[in-house]
Design a protein that fits this description.
heterodimer, A: about 325 residues, alpha/beta, Rossmann fold, 2 domains, 5-stranded parallel beta sheet, about 15% strand, B: about 180 residues, 3-stranded antiparallel beta sheet, 4 helices, about 25% strand, globular
């Protein structure tokens, strides 16, 4: 059974912390003259993108290439998918090409799960966003960024503000951040909170101003117009006045509080330009960290004979090739 | 490949080096490094995690005592360069910490606890290749137990320890294990 990364909820605390500490090592690679590691030499990673995405695809591509994997990019536009090929046939084609891992972005929630469990292929599947469901590597890079700024997340308060209904980032973050001990509050207009949110174990609220002074992290979400088939709020202007983060609201934050955004931003809608460009904003750093976190995920899933994530206990002891007995603790 | 070894709990078996022996060996290695290099100029010590890093730091401290000036010490993780990476579950990485001045045109002394098959050192040479181009690379080990699989030898050896492949050599360092000892199990 191959390991996959389909949902942030599948990660135990140990798994999540292993990814974050591994990502810390991967990040130091960015300071070296040769930004390349040999861990995935000879492995093939396919980026299978049925939905437009620039930063996630580039980030996965950079991550796989820095680990020396061969990368094949497949985007649905102009491909056989636009000629009517199904996900199943595409998956079987990739299998026949010998893909070791498939990084999949799909407009349908559950597509990654299907790809992993339908028996179409034996590849490791990494979910790079499925519909309005999950985007686990985004949650991991967000958590990584938070830890770098705030230290361990136990008891930290994270406010996630905006279009929670259509946001896979919000769901993945809610799951992962709770695993890591943080307290999550979702803030959105009633129309943009998903059905069943009360089962997520998070707090919810409609009033951003009540939440901001207590938050250690404020994560702003984009209003996903392209997924909206209905009108969820009266006007852009009213939305941005009630739920947008502007300089005045930023003034209510604690000194150490950081502002995050998964991108792409709509400046002037959920976040104003002066906030996005302020010292508190770690939005650009999130992109840098994304590569390191995705390298960690690919390495831990593909680097060894079997994945180091997901249930299988991590083998920490054993020969280190020098003939010493090792009693490694997790570095 | 060396036989699979399990981590044990307590040092049993035969103690071949105690704390004072390790101390003396490291002092001698420090002097040998300085003698060979005719001083501490251009020296960089890189320890191989985990215990090699502590040994490198101890050697650097002794060199600083003798020469009066500190020398750069770092850590070089070789996990991703191992030739058996694919044979086992993905391993946890250890920190790589290259001194700010880098390793280009320096005399790099790799430091490890036990030299056995030589595969760790081959991996370390590969790892270094991606970081810079040293003027020369030397190897210092606390214990050389023989049974090389590759044409690699140490320049500075704490103790040559004839062993059979069925034996295990356990190095304990106070920074990591609470006390200093080398035992054969």
């Amino acid at each position: 059974m191959k390991g996959h990364l389909l949902s942030a909820g599948d990660l135990s605390r140990d798994d999540a912390e292993l990814i974050l500490t591994t990502a810390e090592e991967m990040r130091s690679l960015a300071d070296r003259p040769i930004k390349k590691l040999p861990a995935l030499r000879g492995r093939t990673v396919v980026n299978l993108f049925f939905e437009d995405s620039t930063r996630t695809r580039m980030s996965f591509e950079a991550a796989a290439k820095r680990l020396s994997a061969d990368v094949i990019n497949f985007s649905a536009k102009g491909s056989s998918v636009s000629k009517g090929e199904s996900l199943k046939d595409t998956a079987m084609t990739l299998e026949a090409m010998g893909a070791d891992a498939v990084v999949v972005r799909h407009w349908a929630s559950g597509a990654a799960y299907n790809l992993a469990h339908a028996g179409w292929s034996r590849s490791t599947v990494v979910n790079a966003g499925d519909g309005t469901h999950e985007h686990p590597t985004q949650a991991l890079l967000d958590a990584f960024t938070m830890v770098r700024h705030l230290g361990p997340l136990d008891g930290r308060r994270v406010a996630i503000v905006g279009d929670v209904l259509h946001s896979r980032v919000a769901r993945s973050n809610a799951l992962l951040l709770q695993t890591l001990g943080a307290e999550v509050t979702l803030v959105a207009p009633p129309t943009l909170l998903p059905y069943g949110v009360e089962t997520w174990g998070v707090e919810t609220g409609y009033d951003i101003d009540a939440v901001l002074p207590k938050a250690d992290v404020v994560m702003m979400l984009r209003v996903q117009r392209e997924r909206m088939t209905d009108s969820y709020f009266p006007s852009t202007r009213e939305y941005s006045r009630r739920y947008g983060l502007d300089a005045r609201r930023m003034g209510a934050l604690q000194d150490h509080t950081i502002v995050m955004h998964p991108g792409p931003m709509v400046r002037g809608m959920e976040i104003t330009a002066d906030v996005a460009d302020s010292d508190r904003s770690v939005i650009v750093e999130q992109v840098t960290n994304g590569v390191a976190v995705r390298m960690a995920v690919l390495y831990l899933l593909l680097g060894g004979s079997e994945p180091a994530l997901g249930g299988a206990e991590n083998v920490q002891s054993g020969t280190d090739g020098t003939g010493t007995t090792t009693e490694e603790t997790n570095a | 490949m060396p036989p699979t070894q399990e981590s044990d709990v307590q040092p049993e078996g035969r103690t071949v080096l105690d704390a004072r022996d390790i101390d003396r060996a490291l002092t001698r290695i420090s002097h040998e490094i300085l003698e060979r290099n005719k001083g501490s100029h251009d020296l960089v010590l890189l320890g191989i995690p985990s215990r090699g890093v502590h040994l490198a730091q101890r050697i650097a401290a002794r060199i600083a005592e003798v020469e009066g000036t500190g020398i750069p010490v770092g850590a070089l993780d070789i996990t991703m360069y191992r030739d058996d990476l694919r044979l086992r579950p993905a391993r946890t990485l250890s920190p790589t910490d290259i001194p700010a001045a880098g390793i280009d045109d320096k005399i790099v002394v790799l430091v490890d606890d036990v030299l056995y098959s030589g595969r760790t050192i081959r991996a370390a040479l590969d790892a270094m290749n991606d970081i810079g181009r040293p003027q020369a690379v030397r190897l210092a080990v606390l214990v050389d137990r023989g049974h090389r699989d590759l044409p690699i030898r140490a320049d500075f050896v704490g103790k040559n320890l004839p062993t059979s492949t069925s034996e295990k050599v356990a190095v304990r360092l106070s920074e990591y294990d609470g006390s200093d000892s080398v035992t054969i199990l």
